[in-house]
Amino acid sequence: MKPIEIKPDIYWVGVIDWAVRDFHGYVTPNGTTYNNYLIMDEQVTLLDTVKHDFGASAVDNIRRVVDPYRIKNIVINHIEPDHASSIATIMEYAPDATIYITERGKKGLDRHFDTSRWKFRIVKSGDTLSTGKYTLTFLETPMLHWPDSM
């Protein structure tokens, strides 16, 4: 599926997994989506990634909007695989990006990936990220969905 501009300069660049029939206990006869979003601003920002099997498709969707190398910030809301497991693929195309993540989330990524060359900014409730005309405000919500949710 192609990227969808959902608001000026904000794009859905996610993917559809047509094969999933059960997602977190919900019957999904038509599959599911793995949602990530791209903010086209002074600092190009990616919100979440997608399930690892679909990383290349996500990169293709990003490329339809912008060269992935221009991504300056990546926000990982939590490290559940459908949100974060293609981070290594994304970082191949955006090696200079800074990952915004909670402390718990960073520890989780460290357990699953070689993060030694990635840049991180650990965020907590009240921290902000200005992308230019947009400002993201972080709110930690541990165990709302996952231990590291924000």
Write out key terms for the chains shown.
150 residues; seven-stranded mixed β-sheet; alpha/beta; 4 helices; 13 strands
Give a quick rundown of the structure.
The chain is built from 4 helices and 13 strands. With 150 residues, it is an alpha/beta fold. The chain has a single domain, classed as Ribonuclease Z/Hydroxyacylglutathione hydrolase-like (Metallo-beta-lactamase, Chain A), CATH 3.60.15.
Structure characterization notes:
- α4 (103-112) links the parallel β10 and β11 (119-122).
- The chain is of the alpha/beta class and 150 residues long.
- It is built from 4 helices and 13 strands.
- The mean pLDDT is 92.
- The radius of gyration is 15 Å and the shape is globular.
- Strands 1-2-7-8-9-10-11 form a 7-stranded mixed sheet.
- The protein has a single domain (4-137), classed as 4-Layer Sandwich (Metallo-beta-lactamase, Chain A).
Q: Main β-sheet, in a few words? A: 7 strands, mixed
The CATH class label is: Alpha Beta
Structural class of the helices, strands and pairings?
alpha/beta
Compute the average pLDDT.
Answer: 92
The first-to-last residue Cα distance is: 27 Å
Coarse morphology? globular
The parts where pLDDT drops under 50 for at least 5 residues are none
CATH architecture: 4-Layer Sandwich
Q: Which value, in Å, is the CA radius of gyration?
A: 15 Å
| Number of structurally distinct domains | 1
Number of helical stretches of at least 4 residues: 4
Give the strand order, joined by hyphens, for the main sheet: 1-2-7-8-9-10-11
CATH topology category name: Metallo-beta-lactamase, Chain A
H/E series: EEEEEEEEHEHHEHEEE
Tell me the number of strands. 13
CATH superfamily: Ribonuclease Z/Hydroxyacylglutathione hydrolase-like
